[in-house]
């Protein structure tokens, strides 16, 4: 079982979609740049990121953390 890092509530599908579209436009973004580019609050963006990581839809690399869409 994967535990949420940022919030115990599931991410809303529209937030996940915004993060996905953001990473399609420019892969390898940081948490802060994703929140800024999507217009989501930091918590909303981080919950969406957490949900996507749990589903293996995005990878986390480096320091600072950068997020990359997984190729299908």
Which helices and strands appear, and what pairs or packs with what?
Layout: H1 13-25, H2 31-38, H3 42-54, E1 58-61, E2 66-69
Antiparallel strand pairs: 1-2
Helix pairs in contact: 1-2, 1-3, 2-3
Organism: Vreelandella zhuhanensis
Protein name: MarR family transcriptional regulator
3D architecture notes:
The protein is mostly helical and 72 residues long. It has one domain (13-69): Arc Repressor Mutant, subunit A (Orthogonal Bundle). It has helices at residues 13-25, 31-38, 42-54; strands at residues 58-61, 66-69. It has a two-stranded antiparallel ribbon with strand order 1-2. Strand 1 and strand 2 form a beta hairpin. The chain is globular and about 25 Å long. The N and C termini lie far apart (23 Å). This is MarR family transcriptional regulator.
| Tally of strands | 2
Give the amount of beta strand, in percent: 5-15%
Choose one word for the global shape: globular
CATH fold description: Arc Repressor Mutant, subunit A
Mean pLDDT: 88
Protein name: MarR family transcriptional regulator
Provide a compact summary of the structure.
The protein is mostly helical. The chain contains 3 helices and 2 strands, in the order αααββ.
Properties at a glance:
72 residues, mainly alpha, Arc Repressor Mutant, subunit A, 3 helices, MarR family transcriptional regulator
């Amino acid at each position: 079982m994967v535990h949420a890092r940022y919030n115990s509530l599931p991410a809303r599908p529209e937030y996940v979609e915004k993060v996905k579209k953001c990473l399609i436009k420019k892969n390898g973004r940081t948490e802060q740049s994703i929140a800024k580019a999507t217009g989501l609050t930091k918590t909303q963006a981080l919950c969406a990121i957490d949900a996507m990581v749990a589903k293996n839809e995005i990878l986390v690399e480096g320091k600072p953390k950068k997020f990359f869409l997984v190729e299908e």
